[in-house]
């Protein structure tokens, strides 16, 4: 089963909109993500419905942040994109006849439910601003390394 990358993509877009482009069209975002503008509009619609972005049609239009990244948690983005399944593992059949499979499925369901609850709770404690700060640190480190490499190359 392929991974669902909508959440990481939307986090990526939110940080770019905050740090680099104040307003971006669906076409601009689609080029950045390597996808179709229709897919972008569908993903962004959930963020718009929750009030994190706004959209304007027509010439000069596009998507724009309506709040600070400090005010958006990963949980809120997760909910805005429709709360996709967090895990791709699960039971082999919906209603197994085998008692062994029933026992396995029951324990897997319980354990995955507990893990999902922990993960969702953790999402609620992390803001998009924290991810953006990590980006800034990585950028500074890369720039410092490039400067150091340039000095050493002489």
Would you give an account of this structure?
This protein has 154 residues and is mostly helical. The protein has one domain: Arc Repressor Mutant, subunit A (Orthogonal Bundle). It has six helices and three strands. A three-stranded antiparallel beta sheet has the order 1-3-2. Helix 1 crosses helix 6, helix 2 crosses helix 3 and helix 4 crosses helix 5. The mean pLDDT is 90. This is Rrf2 family transcriptional regulator.
CATH homologous superfamily heading: Winged helix-like DNA-binding domain superfamily/Winged helix DNA-binding domain
> What's the total helix number?
6
* CATH-scheme architecture: Orthogonal Bundle
Task: Specify Rg, calculated over alpha carbons.
Answer: 20 Å
Residue fraction in strands: 5-15%
Secondary-structure content class: mainly alpha
Count of individual domains: 1
Span of the ends, CA to CA: 49 Å
Describe the largest sheet.
3 strands, antiparallel
CATH topology annotation: Arc Repressor Mutant, subunit A
> Which stretches of 5+ consecutive residues score pLDDT under 50?
none
H-E string = HEHHEEHHH
Morphology: globular
- Average pLDDT, to the nearest integer? 90
CATH top level is Mainly Alpha
Number of strands: 3
Fraction of residues in helices?
Answer: 55-70%
Organism: Chelativorans salis
Protein name: Rrf2 family transcriptional regulator
InterPro entries: Tscrpt_reg_Rrf2, WH-like_DNA-bd_sf, WH_DNA-bd_sf
């Amino acid at each position: 089963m392929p991974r669902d990358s909508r959440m990481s993509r939307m986090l990526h877009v939110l940080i770019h909109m905050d740090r680099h482009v104040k307003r971006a069209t669906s076409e601009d975002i689609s080029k950045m993500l390597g996808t179709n503008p229709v897919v972008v509009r569908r993903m962004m619609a959930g963020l718009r419905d929750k009030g994190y972005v706004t959209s304007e049609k027509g010439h000069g239009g596009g998507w724009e942040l309506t709040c600070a990244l400090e005010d958006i948690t990963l949980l809120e983005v997760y909910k805005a994109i429709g709360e996709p399944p967090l895990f791709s593992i699960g039971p082999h059949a919906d209603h197994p006849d085998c008692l062994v499979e029933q026992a396995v499925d029951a324990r897997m369901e319980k354990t995955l439910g507990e893990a999902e609850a922990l993960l969702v709770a953790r999402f609620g404690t992390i803001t998009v601003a924290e991810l953006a700060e990590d980006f800034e640190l990585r950028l500074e480190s890369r720039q410092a390394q490039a400067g150091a490499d340039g000095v050493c190359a002489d």
